[in-house]
Every structure is written in structure tokens, then in C-alpha cells.
Amino acid sequence: MATRIDKEACRDAYNQVRDDTSGITWASFKYEGSTIVPGGQGTDYGEFKSQCSDDNRLFGFVRITTGDAMSKRAKFTLITWIGENVSGLQRAKISTDKTLVKDVIQNFAKEFMISDPRELEEDYLRNELKKAGGANYDAQAE
Fold first, then answer.
1. What is the pLDDT along the chain (142 residues), one digit of tens a residue?
2. CB neighbours of 4 closer than 8 A, spacing ≥ 6?
3. Start-to-end Cα distance in the chain
4. CA within 13 Å, CB half, 71
5. What is the Cα Rg of the chain in Å?
6. Where are the alpha helices (DSSP H) in the chain?
7. Phi, psi values for residue 91, rounded to 5°
8. Whole-structure pTM value
């Protein structure tokens, strides 16, 4: 059976993360049967990380604040999580399913495909976003 996505519900979760006034910093998108649906959202990145277990696969849209002493800005990332115990067939399918997710989540600075929990660390993601963002004036702040 072909994978589908609940576009309206997923778009609502995506827009909440992008909204500067909502306080929501992440949204996850999980599989419910053969449909991708919102899996949760919140303000604590640790809650998102706790959903990324060895036995599941999901997509995450995360807001991370970057910048330096002079300016702070929100950067967004799309995370594809594939747990270590996910079957080969499900691993293969996730790359085609990601196109459905990208129909909804269109604006992000960097995309990650992660299966190692260490790469989910917020500092790791922030540093990768800094590299992707161009000029970095942190060294001048000292």
C-alpha cells in the first residue's frame, strides 16, 4: 500500500514551529499504518529526542536558535530518524516517503538523516547549522 500524508494536520504542526510567537520548537511526523501524521510537538527538544528510539522511524522539524552576541536567529532543520532496528524495507521506503513530507515542510536550512543518537544532540545540530549558515562572528565576541 502506498504511503500517504495528512497534509492539513502536518502543515498545521509545521506552521506552529515556524511561528515566532507560538513557543513551539519542534514537531514530529510519524507513521500510523501507511499514513504520515503529526506525532507530537513541544518546547523541550529532549521530548523530541525521546521519540527517536531504535525501533521506529520518523521525521522531525526543529527550530534551533543560532547566532552570536550581535544577533540571534531561528534556523530550521528537517530530521529523518531511522532507528537501528528498523527493517531494510522500511529503511528503503523512507527516502521515497520523505518527498511527501517535503511537500509540506519546504523551508529549512539543513537536512539530516540520522540513525546514531549522538547526532541528535542539540549542540551537534547547532554547530552543523552554523557551518551551513555562512559567516560566523562568534570568535570576535571574545
1. 799 999 999 999 999 999 999 999 999 999 999 999 999 999 999 999 999 999 999 999 999 988 777 778 889 999 999 999 999 999 999 989 999 999 999 999 999 999 999 999 999 999 888 887 665 555 544 4
2. 34, 35, 36, 100
3. 56
4. 7
5. 15
6. 7-18, 45-51, 88-104, 122-132
7. -60, -45
8. 0.89
